[in-house]
Amino acid sequence: MRTHGTSESWINTRHPTRDIKPAPSEDCHRCGCRIFGLAVSLVEGGSCCESCYLDTHKDSKAASVHAYEGFAEALTTALDLREHETGLHSKRVACHTLVLARYFITEPAHLRRVYWGALQHDVGKIGVPDAVLLKHGPLDENEWALMRAHPEAGRRILVPIPAFDEAAQITLCHEERYDGGGYPAGLRGSDIPLGARLFAVIDTLDAMTNDRPYRKALDFETAKAEIQRKSGNAVLTIGSRETGGV
Fold first, then answer.
1. What are the tens digits of pLDDT across the range 19-30?
2. N or C: which end of the chain has fewer CB within 10 A?
């Protein structure tokens, strides 16, 4: 995957799931913690956990950047745990969104804002009751109303923090769809912020390439082909029609 040349490499463009395998019975070579979930084989030998692997693809040096990023990652880790997500769903889709974002964005500060928005896309679900958020069956009309309020709730959480201004807009719009069939505002096409459109492709890819209770994960090439096949639909326009392929 090609990238624009910049003086600061915010994220490496190597395929994000290459060399990832089920966790062995060993500690992470980077942080020393026991590995659960997925592990990544290291060139120098041994394995590292998924979190350390994702961290190696970021290059943010300013203390203020680390502070904001640490806050955002702690908040989303708590939400992932509440939703019983396996692995590091929020951090994973945020880092992978940057791989796609580099086709469109060259400014490192802008890429960081896209990362923060993708990372915190579901932060508004903090306000959704457990009975709705963790329900295994279909939601009724009232429950859907509660669930559909989470983008606006996420915006309200983030908007008081100036550094998260663009992240707040991505969070607000991440459930919008290119054909206008999403929520909360029914935005369509380029009215949806670019970061939210980029995130939608990666979120779809992540859903396809991870196990679900009702199906096994697809391999990357199969998922890529399916995204290309659906080029131009409500979700996937930005990833296939405009870039010529993910």
1. 444 445 677 777
2. N
How far is it, in rounded angstroms, from Cα 194 to Cα 204? 16
Token reading at 36: 């659960």
Measured from the Cβ of residue 134, the count of other Cβ atoms closer than 10 Å reads 11
pLDDT score recorded for residue 82: 84
- Show the 3-state SS of 20-83: EEECCCCECCCCCCECCCEEEECCCCCEEEHHHHHHCCCCCCCHHHHHHHHHHHHHHHHHHHHC
Q: Is 40 exposed, middle or buried (0-12, 13-18, 19+ CB in 10 A)?
A: buried
Give me the pLDDT at residue 167, please. Answer: 96
Check residue 137 and give its pLDDT.
87
- What's the angle, vertex CA 14, arms to CA 11 and CA 18, rounded to 5? 125
- Give the Cβ contact number of residue 186 at 10 Å: 12
Q: Give tens-digit pLDDT for 117-153.
A: 999 999 999 999 999 998 888 999 999 999 999 999 9
Closest CA to 84 of 199, 215, 212: 212
